[in-house]
Amino acid sequence: LFVADPLRPGVHVMIEGPQAHYLSRVMRVVAGDPVVLCDDVTGEWAARVVEAGKRSVALETIEMLRERETVPEIWLCPALIKKDRFDLVLEKATELGVARIAPVVTRRCVADKLNPERARAIVTEAAEQCARTALPELAAPVKLDALLADWPIDRRLYFADENGGAPLAPAIAAAGSQRAGFLVGPEGGFDDQERAAIRALPQAVPISLGPRILRAETAALAALAIWMAEAGD
Ligand code: SAM
Q: What is the whole-number distance in angstroms between the Cα of residue 179 and the centre of ligand 1?
């Protein structure tokens, strides 16, 4: 379970809300049971249940199990898409190990808002499920122009373009495991002006994910899976 404050040995932690429900009703923990905690700062900790109630569970930390992992320098910039499909992107991108998810609003986006609490809950649950000790950073949605204007000079921007680009795997292999991000369009794709603006960015590398037009969420996850296979992170 991820907790908000940094942990130390022998501290008491009060778990409430859905996490308490999960511990007491789903896992049915009782005093003395072991629980693993994570704080997204120091790492993963062994803890034990001191008292389990229906609404809150008191825990005490024992010792650190693993230091917080070093997350590979990979960002995902997915255009906002329909809620259930974007939820899938949040969950799977977390599992695939991204450091940062930076949603983008483009001209053809049907959605332009993201509920930050809900998004945070999805990535936290995904991180717990796959035993990540670091949460991906979740940025507020920005317009495409702003994303391009602020794109770091020393970070590649792999632009997933269904109209053609370099095959992704060899492009990653040639670049080595540099700092990078993936930009993926919405259901209706990028329009011509957007495509030209992205391609004009010196850090942009147009890439292809094969001959088929993938759904936006498939494209985002395929790109990350290829990154993982090539960079090994
Ligand atoms: N209409 C479908 C949907 O509802 O999801 C397909 C959308 S596709 C145009 C969305 C985005 O996925 C594109 O803007 C592009 O970034 C990426 N994409 C899809 N297929 C791709 C491919 N073969 N190569 C590179 N990027 C691709």
A: 23
Angle formed by the axes of helices 216-231 and 168-175, nearest 10°: 40
Question: CA dist 147 to 72, 100, 140, 197, Å?
Answer: 20, 13, 11, 11
Nearest CA to ligand 1 atom 10: 216
Please count the CA atoms within 13 angstroms of the CA of 225 that sit on its side-chain side. Answer: 9
15 CA from centroid of ligand 1 (Å)? 41
ipTM rounded to 2 decimals: 0.96
Flag whether the pTM goes above 0.80. yes
Mean per-residue pLDDT pooled into runs of 10, the chain (233 residues)? 93 93 92 95 95 93 93 93 97 96 97 92 95 94 98 96 92 84 97 97 96 97 93 72
* Residue in 89, 147, 194, 213 to alter for ligand 1 test, most ligand atoms within 8 A of Cβ: 213
Closest CA to 10 of 70, 42, 50, 56: 50
Looking up tokens 């999805």, which residue turns up? 122
State how far the Cα of 103 lies from the Cα of 153, in Å rounded to an integer: 19
* Strands 104-105 and 142-143, bridge-based pairing: parallel
Cα distance between the two ends of the chain? 23
Residue 208 CA, ligand 1 centroid: distance in Å: 10
Helix (H, G, I), strand (E, B) or coil at 48: strand
As given in the structure block, the two tokens for residue 176 are 């080595």
